[in-house]
Amino acid sequence: MGAKDFEVTCPCCAARLTVDAASGKLLRARDANSSEKTDAWESAQKNVRERTTGGANKLDSALESERGKADRLDELFRKAQDRTRRPMNDEPE
């Protein structure tokens, strides 16, 4: 279905009609008893569930990364301080 298409349900037979908004032409008609409707609904539900769990997993991963960030930065800072405090052995005499 394109951006300028819309679906309507026939009040008489409950068929799904896809109509072009610009021209008003009927693009597709699907029977109300069609299994395509059920398959599309199940597929859409599956996609939503996957996106929801995927988003939760991404959030958990980002939160875990943020929790460890302070420790990683403290360790990098400590190493940098150690390097600056250590006498340079390569200095010319």
Description:
With 93 residues, the protein is α+β, with helices and mostly antiparallel strands. The protein has 1 helix and 3 strands, in the order βββα. The protein has one helix spanning 35-85; strands at 5-9, 16-20, 26-30. The chain has a 3-stranded antiparallel beta sheet, with no helix packed on it. Strand 2 (16-20) and strand 3 form a beta hairpin. The longest helix has 51 residues, at 35-85. The N and C termini lie far apart (79 Å).
SSE layout and pairing:
Layout: E1 5-9, E2 16-20, E3 26-30, H1 35-85
Antiparallel strand pairs: 1-2, 2-3
Q: Sheet with the most strands?
A: 3 strands, antiparallel
Number of helices: 1
Q: What share of the residues lie within helices?
A: 40-55%
Extended strand count: 3
Q: Which structural class fits the helix and strand makeup?
A: alpha+beta
Using the alpha-carbon principal axes, give the shape. rod-shaped
Short summary:
The protein has 1 helix and 3 strands. By secondary structure, the chain is α+β, with helices and mostly antiparallel strands.
For the structure shown, list the relevant keywords.
three-stranded antiparallel β-sheet, 16% strand, 1 helix, 55% helix, 93 residues, alpha+beta
